[in-house]
């Protein structure tokens, strides 16, 4: 049998694979720690070849020879009445699912009790004796259950239940002694006579359980180790700590220790840093070695018994922050324990949400009511007073600023539109009820780095928002908690937040490392303001993949000029409005190009579903009329005039109506103005010796005829449509300042366009898949309405995930077809994706596989997308080198 027992101690372990396969999970863990040269308790393992057959073995003889090593290590002797060594037996199955009881304190007998009491006191000693009985009774009860001895099993279970609750409560010595006398009778008489007899009886009983347990399959080993006690006199202690700060990631051990106490009995632990300096040094050294081995933060338990420090166990830490995960990897990189690839592969892309947005300090919400659930439109945490209209929120904001009051607000509306963007920009978050991930509120919130939560059951009535049984008054504080994983929550009141800090969180360092591994697949940003462009650069974007030009008119002082342009009923009115818009656009393009310094900037020409931009309420209409009549003495525009114009423009289905390039077919001067603004800005920067690389993108193209017309123009009898290239040529010859390199391309956001890609690419130098509209038009699902019935679809398993964040199979198929057909016509066709799907790591993998060149997503999502790209690139390189090697 000796060959079936395997000893280990600090720096001496079994390495033989065949043996390692027979010692179970806990056995292998023990061997791993032993090989790490950590101060672990020595021990030995009876392997699974004999684990279930110990009843037939001469245990005493075989085990005795292994005891010596344990005895010398801890300075105690098994079966010694004065200073007895006690043991624990750990059942070590090969399968983690098996759940066996904890078995401690073997060797505690009538003979050794007094000696043990001398060290730890009577009360504790009898408590431990009861704990020993508890473990053995559990084994006996399980055997009785397997053997169908129902009466006996029932009796044992009743006793055990009582014992388990007794062990939880405090008792005085006499009570403990009384319980001990009562319970020892349930075990064989000889059990407390002699330590070796006890060990033999215990091992045989456990072995019998392993033999009859069907789940065991001869696959379980038994690990035996000394017990050590942190209450073994004044030079003893116990404690636990994490290898570093689990919130900040700072390289400082965190935890508590208990002087002359066993584990956490008694709750007044002292900070671990107050332990004696020589122990602290050792613990720090253990922490360092454990981190270097496991390459993650671990939690460690230790015991000091009579001045000797022992590592009891260590395990992964569940609730650590992303910041801490990044910090440890950066530290290990500096120490050359890991390489850049390992740093990148360790952090999950979506974890980064946690350091890009504030998070709720969950310690601060204990006393607040809460409402669970909802659709996460933009993750993060936001606190503020709730207002139900943009106007009220803006007024409240101004007043708060004037009076130096808290100016954090949450916009709460069924849905938001263009004129609400200014409120979203100032608010900390948006709470809405219509749409979902791809709804206006969510898209804009993500773009501005704000929080968005969609609660379909939210109803606003008067000055109250009703959600289920809860009601929120206008002006009340709420806290939106929209985690990246897990259920969103609204806390009714003000929580504390933990703000992001890219420098401290390690984000900026991580971005630099990630950049070294992204190969030739790029991540660009959806940005339409200088602020977003700067953020895109800071977060590692390789360009702008979508500048939605209609978003540039969201600002308060611009929206009415834009409205004036939309509703113009004559060419001259439109051209006067366009002139004003051109100055605004040129200035914005100038600033954006300057920030992007020659990186590609894809400017999408106007795509404004009209219903999003027209006045939605009286206040907006009044402001619009005031704007239109400014400086006029006569011929004032009336509400009726505007209403008539709006009526004339009204559409039954604006999303499929006069939008995208269709507006330009009817009003070529709109795109002409935009192209001029782009090139005016570009030539100005050229003069300043700053490179500019515009890519002009035409939205909602359906077939080759549309793009051919818009790009190359057309002459028919009595009518001339000037194409973009002609406009650019004219500008070039006027400016006499040489070439500005540029590309003209299209969005692919209609199934027809995807199928027509082979023809469309004759006139498009690049494609950008607008998967918000492509999903909407492929599935025939309104991006703004789907969320109202999505729960039913999820309930009956009719759809997997949310197609507006996870690319659906049919959309993927259309992208695949379009890429294939597009490239067939134009091998150098550049291909990207700029819908909301571009920020989702799982979609990025598809985009890389299908042969796209980039994805474009909100600036705040750029680090997440870049990390996903780097991970995929590294995995690809590894597969390539494995297959070529
Ligand atoms: C899209 O449709 O995917 C897209 C990017 O355009 P928008 O969201 O502006 O319609
Ligand atoms: Mg679109």
Q: What strand line-up does the widest sheet have? A: 14-24-23-16-17-18-19-15
Residue ranges: pLDDT <50 for 5 or more in a row?
A: none
The largest sheet, given as strand count, sense and whether it forms a barrel, is: 8 strands, mixed
Q: Residue share in helices?
A: 40-55%
Task: Please give the radius of gyration in angstroms.
Answer: 36 Å
Distance between the termini: 45 Å
Strands, count: 35
Key words describing this protein structure:
8-stranded parallel barrel; 32 helices; 885 residues; binds magnesium ion; 18% strand; alpha/beta; 8-stranded mixed beta sheet; binds phosphoenolpyruvate
Fold and architecture overview:
- This protein has 885 residues and is α/β, with parallel strands linked by helices.
- Helix content is 44%, strand content 18%.
- It contains 32 helices and 35 strands.
- The strands form 8 sheets. The protein has an 8-stranded mixed β-sheet with strand order 14-24-23-16-17-18-19-15. An 8-stranded parallel beta barrel has the order 26-27-28-29-32-33-34-35, surrounded by 7 helices. A 5-stranded antiparallel β-sheet has the order 1-2-7-5-6, sandwiched between helices.
- A hairpin with a 2-residue loop joins strand 11 (298-305) and strand 12.
- Helix 16 runs parallel beside helix 32 (862-884).
- It is elongated and about 115 Å long.
- 47% of the residues are buried.
- The structure holds phosphoenolpyruvate and magnesium ion.
- Residues 749, 770, 772-773 line the site of magnesium ion.
């Amino acid at each position: 049998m000796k060959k079936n027992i395997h000893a280990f101690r600090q720096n001496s372990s079994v390495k033989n694979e065949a043996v390692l396969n027979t010692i179970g999970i806990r056995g292998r863990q023990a061997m791993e720690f032993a090989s790490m040269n950590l101060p672990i308790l020595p021990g030995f393992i009876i392997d699974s070849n004999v684990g279930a057959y110990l009843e037939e073995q001469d245990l005493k003889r075989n085990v005795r020879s292994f005891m010596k090593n344990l005895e010398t290590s801890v300075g105690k002797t098994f079966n010694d009445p004065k200073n007895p060594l006690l043991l624990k037996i750990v059942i070590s199955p090969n399968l983690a699912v098996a759940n066996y009881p904890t078995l401690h304190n073997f060797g505690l007998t009538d003979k050794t009790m007094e000696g043990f009491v001398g060290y730890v006191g009577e009360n504790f000693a009898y408590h431990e004796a009861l704990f020993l009985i508890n473990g053995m009774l559990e084994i006996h009860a399980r055997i009785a259950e397997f053997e169908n001895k129902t009466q006996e099993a029932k009796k044992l279970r009743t006793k055990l239940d009582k014992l388990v609750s007794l062990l939880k409560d405090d008792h005085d010595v006499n009570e403990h002694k009384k319980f001990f006398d009562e319970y020892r009778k349930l075990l064989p008489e000889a059990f407390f006579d002699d330590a070796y007899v006890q060990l033999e009886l215990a091992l045989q009983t456990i072995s019998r359980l392993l033999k009859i347990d069907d789940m065991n399959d001869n696959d379980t080993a038994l690990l035996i180790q000394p017990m050590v006690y942190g209450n073994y006199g004044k030079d003893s202690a116990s404690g636990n700590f994490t290898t570093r700060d689990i919130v900040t990631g700072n390289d400082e051990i965190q935890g508590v220790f208990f002087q002359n106490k066993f584990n956490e009995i008694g709750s007044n632990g002292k900070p671990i840093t107050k332990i004696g300096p020589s122990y602290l040094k050792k613990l720090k050294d253990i922490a360092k070695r454990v981190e270097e081995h496991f390459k993650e933060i671990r939690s460690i338990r230790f015991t000091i018994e009579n001045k000797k420090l022992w590592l009891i166990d260590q395990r992964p830490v569940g609730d650590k922050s992303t910041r801490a995960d990044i910090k440890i990897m950066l530290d290990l990189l500096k120490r050359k324990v890991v390489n850049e690839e390992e740093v990148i592969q360790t952090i999950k892309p979506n974890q980064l949400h946690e350091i890009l947005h504030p998070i709720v300090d969950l310690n601060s919400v204990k006393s607040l009511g809460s409402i669970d659930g909802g659709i996460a439109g933009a993750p993060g945490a936001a606190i503020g007073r709730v207002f139900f209209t943009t106007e009220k929120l803006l007024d409240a904001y101004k007043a708060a600023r004037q009076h130096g009051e808290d100016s954090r607000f949450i916009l709460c509306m069924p849905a938001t539109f263009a004129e609400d963007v200014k409120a979203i920009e100032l608010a900390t978050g948006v709470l809405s009820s219509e749409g979902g991930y791809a709804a206006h509120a969510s898209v804009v919130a993500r773009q501005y780095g704000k929080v968005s939560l969609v609660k379909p059951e939210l109803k606003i009535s008067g000055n109250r928002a009703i959600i289920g049984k809860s009601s929120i008054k206008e002006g009340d504080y709420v806290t939106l908690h929209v985690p990246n994983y897990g259920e969103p929550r609204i806390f009714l009141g003000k929580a504390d937040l933990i703000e992001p800090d890219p420098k401290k969180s390690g984000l900026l360092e991580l971005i630099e490392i990630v950049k070294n591994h992204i190969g030739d697949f790029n991540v660009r940003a959806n940005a339409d303001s200088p602020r977003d462009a700067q953020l895109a650069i800071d977060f590692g974007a390789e360009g702008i993949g979508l500048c939605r030009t209609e978003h540039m008119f969201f600002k308060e002082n611009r929206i009415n000029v834009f409205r004036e342009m939309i509703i113009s009923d004559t060419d001259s009115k439109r051209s006067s409005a366009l002139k004003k818009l051109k100055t605004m656009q040129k200035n914005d393009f100038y600033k954006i190009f300057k920030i992007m310094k020659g990186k590609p900037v894809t400017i999408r020409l106007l795509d404004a579903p009209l219903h999003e931009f027209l006045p939605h309420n009286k206040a907006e209409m009044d402001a619009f009329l005031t704007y239109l009549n400014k400086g006029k003495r006569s011929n004032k525009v009336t509400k009726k005039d505007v209403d008539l114009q709006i009526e004339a423009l009204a559409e039954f289905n604006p999303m499929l109506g006069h939008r995208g390039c269709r507006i330009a077919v009817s009003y070529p001067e709109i795109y002409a103005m935009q192209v001029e603004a782009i090139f005016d800005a570009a030539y100005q920067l050229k003069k300043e010796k700053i490179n500019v690389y515009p890519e002009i993108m035409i939205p909602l193209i359906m077939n080759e005829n549309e793009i051919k017309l818009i790009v190359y123009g057309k002459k028919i009898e009595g009518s001339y449509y000037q194409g973009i290239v002609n406009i650019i040529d004219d500008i070039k010859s006027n400016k006499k300042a040489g070439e500005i390199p540029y590309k003209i391309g299209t969005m692919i956001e209609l199934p027809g366009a995807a199928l027509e890609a082979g023809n469309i690419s004759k006139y498009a130098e690049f494609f950008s898949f607008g998967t918000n509209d492509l999903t909407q038009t492929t599935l025939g699902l309104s991006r703004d309405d789907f969320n109202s019935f999505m729960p039913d679809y999820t309930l009956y398993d009719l759809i997997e995930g949310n197609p507006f964040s996870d690319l659906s199979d049919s959309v993927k198929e259309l992208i695949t077809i379009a890429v294939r057909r597009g490239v067939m016509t134009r091998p150098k066709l550049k291909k990207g994706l700029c819908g909301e799907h571009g920020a989702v790591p799982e979609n990025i993998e598809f985009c890389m596989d299908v042969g796209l060149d980039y994805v474009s997503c909100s600036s705040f999502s750029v680090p997440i997308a870049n990390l996903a790209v780097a991970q995929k690139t590294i995995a690809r390189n590894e597969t390539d080198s494995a297959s070529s090697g």
